[in-house]
Design brief:
Length: about 425
């Protein structure tokens, strides 16, 4: 009896399991990756709802004070996260996974309240609450990663995987939220986002708790956290985060003043996200074959500087989309490299505290960078030139192994001491 034909192969459950493992990694790290996908998806719903209610539905002049107030709100949570939540996570190692689930649950509840308070003053403290617990989630997530991977050499790949998942889930959820915003309103977007937060809280319950860690030796801790790799890396990422805030609002207000369509600004944001996603693929490859983390900082600043100055020279609105992609790529390369350095060098018993401290520093840089084009109303081409020069200075300092903030602080300290000595009675 001859063959009547080839019977198509039915995918087995094991195939789906292999695919999921390639996306999210192996257990127990995959539990954190699942939760992070839900968290970033819900964050995208929250961000789209705020963009629609704070910026795009009002004039440029009316949007400016709203944006300034929102930027102040994004910075304020770190006054709570750094001194309180970071040490709590360090003191109780098992609390890292508990904080992850709790912050998702609280953000979901707050989004339900915000959905009914978009047009009154309760909106601002409720949005502040979402930002506070969101930063607590970020600190707890970063501090939990080393306890969920097999070896310290896997930290770079783990950070890249989380960043890749964040880019994919955030982009997909952001597109869905934008569609909901067009068909409905910001309140509906927030209610759907709260459901995603609740789903993430359920997934967080499956993350295995990490073991409690011993108290760190103070002298060893200081030596590790003041190493050149940490200081220079922090300086590079500070510059890159400031550039993201600067570019985002430079383009936003530039497009609004020029009367450009909203879809063009959305295209710039998509390009920024695509650059972030590309970094999750390129960073591990560069680290395996060519470059160490310390060299990645220099390359990221150099590429961003060259692209920004080139676009400023031959300016067009389409070129802004290109520079957004390159700056997004550079910023995420630098951030992944720094996370690997900090997870590698920071003592486990103080990891939450230091992640909270550096998150505060990076968020302050983002806010300061964003405020410059909002307050000064820079032209787009002039703003790009300023940004390119800033990248060039930061790249030169990083290549020389110099922490920019540390150098400025030492210079100020020297001047103050000289003045005090000059004023001392003879």
């Amino acid at each position: 009896m001859g063959e009547l034909g080839t019977i198509p192969r039915i995918p087995e459950p094991r195939d789906a399991h292999v695919l999921l493992q390639r996306v999210f990694g192996a257990l127990p790290f995959a539990r954190l990756a699942h939760t992070h996908a839900a968290s970033t998806s819900a964050d995208a719903f929250f961000a789209v709802s705020l963009a629609g209610s704070l910026f795009f539905n009002v004039s440029v002049d009316a949007a400016r004070p709203r944006v300034i107030l929102y930027l102040a709100l994004t910075m304020a949570p770190f006054a709570i996260v750094a001194p309180l939540i970071g040490p709590l996570i360090d003191r109780y190692g098992r609390a890292r996974t508990g904080v992850i689930g709790l912050t998702l649950l609280v953000r979901g509840i707050l989004c339900l309240f915000i959905a009914g308070d978009l047009k009154n003053l309760f909106f601002y403290p409720e949005a502040f609450g979402v930002l506070v617990v969101g930063k607590a989630y970020s600190v707890a997530k970063s501090a939990a990663v080393p306890g969920l991977v097999d070896d310290v050499s896997d930290l770079g790949a783990a950070n890249s995987r989380l960043s890749r998942i964040s880019s994919m889930s955030g982009a997909a959820a952001g597109a869905a939220a934008a569609g909901v915003m067009i068909l409905g309103d910001a309140s509906l977007v927030l209610r759907l986002g709260s459901l995603v937060y609740f789903a993430g809280a359920g997934l967080a319950l499956r993350i295995p708790p990490t073991t409690e860690t011993p108290v760190a030796d103070t002298e060893l801790e200081e030596a590790e956290m003041h190493s050149r790799s940490v200081l220079v890396g922090a300086s590079a990422v500070t510059a890159l985060r400031a550039s993201i805030g600067f570019l985002t609002f430079l383009v936003a207000f530039g497009f609004r003043r020029a009367g450009e369509p909203v879809w063009l600004y959305c295209a710039a944001l998509v390009a920024l996200g695509l650059g972030n996603f590309a970094a999750t693929i390129l960073t591990p490859a560069f680290k395996r074959r060519w470059l160490r983390e310390e060299q990645l900082f220099v390359v990221a600043l150099l590429v961003a500087g060259v692209a920004t100055l080139s676009v400023a020279w031959g300016f067009s609105r389409e070129s802004l989309v290109l520079v957004a992609a390159v700056v997004g790529l550079a910023a995420n390369v630098g951030r992944q490299a720094f996370d690997s350095v900090l997870q590698r060098d920071a003592p486990d018993a103080a990891r939450g505290r230091y992640f909270a401290w550096f998150e505060t520093r990076f968020q302050l840089a983002w806010v300061v960078g964003a405020l410059i084009p909002v307050v000064l109303q820079l032209g787009t081409r002039i703003g790009l030139t300023v940004l390119g020069v800033f990248f060039a200075v930061a790249c030169a300092a990083c290549a020389a192994g110099v922490s920019i903030e540390g150098s400025v602080a030492r210079r100020v300290h020297t001047v103050v001491n000289r003045n005090r000595q000059g004023q001392a009675p003879s």
